[in-house]
């Protein structure tokens, strides 16, 4: 599968240090697209076939929806040793309704190093006191379940002749700290 490739996470110092999180937005769409492509293409093979991963990625060039989605809500970009390794986008934060986990992708070589946990913790803190909703892949579902999310229902998606399994997920509101 072709597409953009980002540099691997540097080995040695910085590879397992806590990631540095920063705000991201539409100006970071190329970086987030590259992470998205690598996470799906190279990291989802245990759960999705090559044909399913190709259909999931779709375009080989960055599609307009990436910048559009990063412009809505709040996005955190995780870096290790200055190299982008993951991102998470949430919408509806600090609203009356539920917060929505929109995009959540980590490079395969950064998995198991605390990047996903750090990104999720930032989202969770920003959504304090709110219920949460989101869609989860076969890969993401167990992580969310470990954090108190429930599967509402399966939500298979048809793309380019492939059926991609995902799930509608939700988590009840938790009290804000000090409440």
Q: TL;DR of this structure?
A:
The chain is an alpha+beta fold. Helix content is 27%, strand content 29%. The protein has a seven-stranded mixed beta sheet, with helices on both faces.
Question: Can you walk through the features of this model?
Answer:
The protein is of the alpha+beta class and 179 residues long. The chain contains 5 helices and 9 strands. The protein has helices at residues 29-43, 50-57, 64-71, 115-126, 141-146; strands at residues 20-24, 74-80, 83-91, 99-106, 132-137, 150-154, 157-159, 162-164, 166-171. A 7-stranded mixed sheet has the order 1-2-3-4-5-9-6, with helices on both faces. The protein has a two-stranded antiparallel sheet with strand order 7-8. A hairpin with a 2-residue loop joins strand 7 and strand 8. Helix 1 (29-43) runs antiparallel to helix 2 (50-57). The chain is globular and about 45 Å long. Residues 1-14 have low confidence and may be disordered.
């Amino acid at each position: 599968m072709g597409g953009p490739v980002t540099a691997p996470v540097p080995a040695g110092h910085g590879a397992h240090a806590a990631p540095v999180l920063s705000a991201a937005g539409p100006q970071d769409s190329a970086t987030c697209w590259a992470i998205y492509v690598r996470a799906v293409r190279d990291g989802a093979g245990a759960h999705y076939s090559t044909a399913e991963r190709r259909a999931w990625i779709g375009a080989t060039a960055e599609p307009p929806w990436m910048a559009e989605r990063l412009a809505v809500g709040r996005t955190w970009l995780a870096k290790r040793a200055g190299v982008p390794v993951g991102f998470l986008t949430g919408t509806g934060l600090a609203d009356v309704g539920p917060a929505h986990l929109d995009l959540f992708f980590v490079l395969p070589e950064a998995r198991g190093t605390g990047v996903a946990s750090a990104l999720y913790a930032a989202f969770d803190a920003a959504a304090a006191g709110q219920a949460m909703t989101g869609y989860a892949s076969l890969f993401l579902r167990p992580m969310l379940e470990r954090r108190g999310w429930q599967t509402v229902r399966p939500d298979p998606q048809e793309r380019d002749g492939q059926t991609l399994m995902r799930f509608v997920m939700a988590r009840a509101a938790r009290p804000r700290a000090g409440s």
